[in-house]
Design goal:
The chain is an alpha+beta fold. It has two domains: 3-192, Beta Barrel (Hypothetical Protein Pfu-838710-001); 208-497, Alpha solenoid (CHAD domain), CATH 1.40.20.10. Helices cover 54% and strands 18% of the residues. It has helices spanning 51-54, 97-100, 104-107, 165-175, 185-190, 208-232, 237-254, 261-297, 307-330, 333-347, 359-362, 364-383, 388-415, 417-455, 461-489, and strands spanning 3-13, 31-46, 58-63, 69-77, 80-86, 113-128, 134-147, 153-161, 178-179. It has an eight-stranded antiparallel beta barrel with strand order 1-5-4-3-2-6-7-8. β7 and β8 (153-161) form a beta hairpin. α6 (208-232) packs antiparallel against α10, α8 (261-297) packs antiparallel against α9 and α12 (364-383) packs antiparallel against α13. The relative contact order is 0.09. The model has no long low-confidence stretch (mean pLDDT 94).
């Protein structure tokens, strides 16, 4: 069974002659207990072209120390990585299937084989506060790397791990050692071959292509980053996975004049499929959270019948079906083909001549177009009859608000503060419309639950009460949208957007 541990750590270079200083005055550090000595022996696995290493991921089998086992380390942010741990098992040369699948979005199914063996002589200290609480761990590592196709190399490094960044800063400052250039032992062992791709900063006067490519790459990275969370059922992972799909689809639509239309159309169709496969799981999450919260606000005297149990049973089945659907999608060949197509698209974008134009001029057009589509859909709300037609119109306005927000988000690095402020007001309108749509969905679900309860001979009163409360929520959200829309129309946007 897998366990997940979040690590916040920093590495430092240390020569053979380096002497550890007294750290008892480093921030909250009062005592240093140790050293505890251990011998670590790790074999690292990757594809032949080092796809994992270049993505900043390490996958290893390690013996020795307190956490022997199979580990996958995934980057989360600066100094932060998630380590997924599996038991050692009997196999030594083949990555366990349950671990290999967690990095499948990066390997695309390519074989995993040993690329380097690293042995480490580790001295570890527990850095404790005055009350005896461990505030940091300090490891002094003497490392020997044995790449499968290169000469062995040796070095010494220090590693400080703590959950509090102020402690990391204090200990790091007291050490007086140089920050390491490599983020991991694997990266140092493999050198330039495993250089992690970093986002390229925009030039002073970027072209439209530069801006759009930067945004598309960020969304593909987000899709892959949340793939593991989807597989491990991490909170909010399905939501962020689906958001990445939607942002990619929206960007490909908004910036379609800059790219080959046929390639864009094909990618958008596959992204629509993938987002759709994740929809049921996410929608059930939202619905269950809302119904449980609303039920908790109802006086117990008005909860008649087995309402909590029915909600748990009905939505539990829906959640299981939704999770099965999204897992089936990410485990399938169609998903791998989509990721490969996205990689090929980003490696050699099929630009049209318009993409070479200055971003400050060319990228105004998609924002204006998205804004006009939103304004038109809001006008349609005013013309829609009350009831289902109006709910449908409001839902369309929500989708258009989301597209306008995503488009502004993509080009914000070029247009600065005024556009960002406008985008935030679009988001406020979208949020109100999202609350309205959630209430509409909840009303329909409560009606179905109430009908089934009645047919089973149960009391349907509470479902009707919850339905009425969701109806009130929908009306309140629509009123909030009207206010947000008024603020948006009266806000200071860039002159070219007015």
């Amino acid at each position: 069974m897998a366990t997940r541990v979040r690590e916040t750590e920093r590495k430092y270079e240390a020569g053979v002659e380096f002497v550890l200083p007294d750290l008892t005055a480093a921030g909250p550090v009062h005592t240093c207990d140790g050293p505890q000595r251990s011998q670590l022996d790790a074999t690292y696995f990757d594809t032949a072209d080092l796809r994992l290493a270049r993505a900043g991921i390490t996958l290893r089998r390690r013996t020795g120390g307190s956490d022997a086992g199979w580990h996958a380390k995934l980057p989360v942010g600066p100094d932060v990585r998630d380590e997924i741990r599996f038991p050692l098992g009997k196999g030594k040369s083949k990555v366990p299937a349950d671990l290999a699948v967690l990095v499948r979005a990066h390997t695309l199914g390519a074989p995993l084989a040993p690329v380097v063996r690293i042995t480490t002589e580790r001295d570890e200290w527990e850095l404790k506060a005055a009350d005896g609480t461990v505030v940091a761990l300090l490891a002094d590592d003497r490392v020997t790397a044995h790449p499968v196709d290169d000469e062995p190399r040796q070095w010494r490094e220090l590693e400080v791990e703590a959950t509090d960044r102020t402690v990391l800063d204090a200990v790091g400052s007291a050490l007086g050692a140089r920050p390491a250039k490599s983020t991991s032992k694997l990266a140092r062992a493999l050198g330039k071959r495993a250089k992690v791709r970093v986002a390229v900063a925009l030039s002073a006067d970027p072209t439209a292509a530069e801006v759009v490519l930067l945004y598309l790459r960020a969304q593909v990275d987000a899709l892959r980053a949340n793939d593991t969370g989807v597989r491990l059922d991490t909170e909010d992972a399905v939501h962020q996975f689906r958001v990445a799909c939607r942002r990619l689809r929206s960007a490909l639509r908004s910036f379609r004049p800059l790219l080959d239309r046929d390639r864009v159309t094909a990618l958008r169709a596959e992204l629509k499929w993938l987002g759709g496969e994740a929809s049921a799981a996410r929608d059930t999450e939202v619905l269950e959270a809302e119904l449980r919260a609303e039920l908790a606000r109802v006086p117990s005297v008005d909860v008649l019948g087995a309402v909590p149990a029915r909600i748990t049973a009905e939505l539990g089945r829906a959640a299981a079906d939704g999770r099965a659907a999204v897992l089936s999608a990410v485990d399938g060949d169609r998903y791998l083909a989509l990721l490969a197509d996205l990689d090929a698209f980003l490696a050699d974008p099929p630009w049209t001549p318009k993409a070479d134009r200055p971003a400050a001029l060319e990228l105004r057009k998609p924002v204006r177009k998205a804004w006009q589509a939103l304004a038109d859909s809001v006008d349609a709300v005013g013309e829609a009859a009350a009831g289902t037609d109006r709910d449908t119109a409001l839902h369309q306005a929500r989708k258009d608000a989301k597209k306008a927000r995503y488009t502004a988000e993509a080009v914000a690095p070029v247009f600065g503060g005024k556009l960002e402020a406008w985008r935030d007001r679009v988001k406020a309108a979208q949020t109100a419309l999202g609350t309205h749509q959630d209430a509409v969905v909840a009303k329909a679900a409560l009606r179905d639950l109430g009908v089934r309860a009645h047919l089973d001979g149960d009391n349907g009163f509470t479902y009707g009460l919850l339905h009425a409360r969701q109806d009130a929520r929908a009306h309140a959200a629509e009123a909030e949208f009207a206010k947000a829309w008024k603020r948006l129309r009266g806000s200071k946007a860039p002159r070219w957007l007015r």
